[in-house]
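REQUEST FORM: STRUCTURE PREDICTION
Request ID: SP-0412
Submitted by: Lab K.M.
Chain count: 1
Length (residues): 498
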Amino acid sequence: MRNKVVLFYPPYAGTPLGPPLSLLSLASPLIEEGFRVSIVDGSIERDFKQIVATEIKDALCLGLSLLTGQVIRPAVEVARLTRHLRPELPIIFGGWHPSLLPGQTLEESFVNVVVRAQGERTLVEIARLLSEGKTLETVRGVSLKLDGGVAHNPERPVENLNDLPSPAFSLGNFDAYEKLTGVRKLPYASSVGCPYACNYCTDQVFYKRRFNAYSAARVVSELTELAARYRLSEVAFLDSNFPVNIKRAVEIARGFLESKTRFRWTFQASTDLLCRMSDEEVCLLGEAGVTHMGFGTESASQEVLALMNKKHQRIGEMYETARKSEQAGIRVTFNLILGYPGETEADRLVTFRVMSDIARKHSNVSFSPNIFTPYPGIPIWPQLRLMGVHEPRSLEEWADVSLGSNHLPWLRGEELRRLRRMLEYFLLNNQIRRGTVKAAWIRGGVRRALGAPLRWRLRKNHYGFPWELWVARATERLVTRRSLLTGQSLGHGMQEVC
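STATUS: Completed
RESULT:
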């Protein structure tokens, strides 16, 4: 009887955070049930196709976890290769994208089953039935092909994270990730879900605004033990919004401090939640090892924030977040969404001016601007269709929808050129002010000389004859996107943003 499950994680742009947490989470209950699990991570295995080809020879099934965007292409390649080598092998797709579009995903000939949403228990049931030679009609939480058609089985009840086993961290090759990145880092999720209903975000669709979290005691116990066992220097919390429960967040920080186990950690949050914390509590985060926090500030225009349904987002709290974080010695990255439906150039100017003012007052602030990305399932798709946005018709078409790509028909030609110019000036001004430019000649007096005309242009909204950009481009590369988890650069050059 075959009892081996092969799990594949496709390679993605950027530096790997560490072992793929989604696959480690799936592997743990499978191992508890007596199945063998082989994980193939395309982010560290260059010959991942050959490795998958070898691993599936004695496999019970192949599972793939993927998000929307470029990772779809290598996932499709691996699935097609598997279908060619072992036509009878069940191929199971899971993760955010298949869960949001199960019907469309199943249109592909190489997909047999889609696991929707929380998949730990679902995959165990699938593996058990396959090993017994039984069909999957009764499995809750899946969509599958049956007799030439597609069946969408009832939802599986969401399970409290505390009732699930810990991810199979022992399957992670930490040495390989350290060799590639120079850091022994672990991606870790202490919670899932966010209570807010931002119109551009898939989180509310996937988790239905339910916050599902480990207890503070479990987080402290588990991470301090993992940090010691695997000699971790950093942990990247993947939580959608870490401090939803402020008391819990403070307990975790205090627990890390009391444990005497030291490692750096980073997370994402919303400014309103951080501002509910006292200065002393934010400083406690810094003392406990927090080095970076990412915030979805998105815009400084109240009109645009209203369009985004970000009623919880206030401009004053952006300033206060920067102040509290700087006082605690924590770097922050503010995400910006540009080109949102209904946004005007005047709205963008407000955003750039407010953000420039925040950066002038607080040197710990960086920015990650992105063009609005129409991800699957978000609430404003009816409006987007009316505005001429093309909705991908197949799994592979969604591979082109990723951060850094522009799919907005209203952001073309001169409108896009002006946005690109405004953004370049904004970023260059911030990098010069923060002293992060690499070119020696820009530092000192030249830096001060460039700063004045940059600020004048942003204040007057005048970008003709951009001599400062021509000069700066000769030696300086603008950081156009940053990871909200770590603050690290994800790209240089405006062509990657627009």
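NOTES: Residues 437-443, 494-498 have pLDDT under 50 and may be disordered.
Reviewed by: T.R.
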